[in-house]
Amino acid sequence: MTAAAKGVWMFSDRWLHVSGLRVTLRDRVRVAVRGIGGETWYMVHDPLTNEHARLRADAWHFLAQLKFHPSVGEAWRVAYASGEVGALTQPRVVQLISALYRRNLLTVSTNIDSARLVERGRLRRRKPVLQRMQTLLFLPVPLFDP
């Protein structure tokens, strides 16, 4: 079943959040092609942050085309009109962009709420501190040795 035959799953209500973004992979990101289980996968790796992502061929080709279009929505419309979308529906594009953004593999050149970015960085730095505090709270104390 093609993506167009699925009808309702082709379009996403979250598309408005992503379609206007100008998105590209970071310059430092490296891509390796791997054949796994008879399928071609693209391994995206940022050596600086050691973040990884594994992409199917259709997702990688879509990401590669993003640098030639002014927005994600325009790139998807061109791919959809030419029949190249395949299984890459709008919900899947939203999921792809958000997953790569969370891993800091993408650069987004639009106005982003800077307070939100600061909060995201603060939470990322705070997480290891909280984990260390939890290990101190739950120290194993042996009561007896059977």
Topology summary:
Blueprint: H1 3-6, H2 15-19, E1 23-25, E2 30-36, E3 39-46, E4 51-56, H3 57-65, H4 72-81, H5 90-102, E5 106-108, H6 114-137
Keywords:
single chain, 146 residues, alpha+beta, three-stranded antiparallel beta sheet, two-stranded antiparallel ribbon, 5 strands, 18% strand, disordered N terminus
What this model shows, in words?
This protein has 146 residues and is α+β, with helices and mostly antiparallel strands. Helices cover 45% and strands 18% of the residues. It contains six helices and five strands, in the order ααββββαααβα. The strands form two sheets. It has a three-stranded antiparallel beta sheet with strand order 2-3-4. The radius of gyration is 20 Å and the shape is elongated.
Contiguous helical run count: 6
Evaluate the radius of gyration: 20 Å
Rough outline: elongated
Q: How much strand content do the residues show?
A: 15-25%
SS-based structural class?
alpha+beta
How much helicity do the residues have? 40-55%
What is the topology, as strand order, of the major beta sheet? 2-3-4
Order of helices and strands: HHEEEEHHHEH
Largest sheet: 3 strands, antiparallel
Identify low-pLDDT runs: 1-8
In total, how many beta strands? 5
Mean pLDDT across the residues is 81
End-to-end span in angstroms?
Answer: 62 Å
